[in-house]
Amino acid sequence: MTDLTDFDAIEPYVLEQIRKTQAPRQWIDWESSDPKTPQSRAWFAEQNRDYAEKNIPRRYAAATTDDTRIHQWVLDVVTNPDTARSLLLAGPTGTGKTHMAYAALRLSAEACRPPFWRAGSTAALLGDLRPSANRDSEALMAKYCNSTVLFLDDLGAGKSSEWTEEMLYRVIDHRYSNLLPCIFATNHAPSELAAALGERTASRLAEMCQVLVIDGDDRRRTR
Fold it and tell me: CATH homologous superfamily for 12-21+28-214?
């Protein structure tokens, strides 16, 4: 397993607080440092980092950020998931929004909580939810709706239709209603989301999300 503990840019106190969090009524063996001891802090670290390694794309496998707003958001989510706001990263193409989102997920994997977040592009979500004889789209819908944290990249990209608007509304409304935190990345300005996603979805995003505007040049073109 790759070592995913390289968080040098994070304030040590914040990182330690994240690593001390646990789910309600979840017993942790804080004394053991053996990752083979179930429920030990080291065991959770091993499980969560392994989950991150398997579910984060290779390009973002070592993603980190020095943005303290991301660090604080992760701390809020792992310590108070029922009250933490979702995160909307808005900005032009290539400004690092996807990188920041995966950096947040990597950092959240340091907590002593079961991970079970889901991440991917909005196009992938819609592909999963499109009716097919070969898969249960409603079962997949439930996974997107109920994951501990959901990251949807490229929100509002691509051609919209009545069906795509309804699918996104179902996912976002469920998570809004059940206080489940999300990360959204979009190339749209927040004021443009109603036109891209529909008024109902944009209204929920406006209430549930902390907005971070990410400016800058297209890093993919300037490397």
Answer: P-loop containing nucleotide triphosphate hydrolases (3.40.50.300)
- Which pLDDT does position 180 carry in this prediction? 96
- Rounded to whole angstroms, the Cα distance separating 60 from 30 reads 30
Give the contacts of 185 (CB within 8 A, at least 6 positions apart). Answer: 89, 90, 97, 98, 101, 151, 152, 153, 154, 155
CA dihedral of 4, 147, 185, 192, whole degrees rounded to 10: -170
Q: What does the CA dihedral 120, 122, 123, 126 come to, rounded to 10 degrees?
A: 110
pLDDT in tens, 139-182: 999 999 999 999 999 999 988 899 999 999 999 999 999 999 99
pLDDT reading at 56 higher than 70: yes
Cα gap 49→150, rounded to integer Å: 17
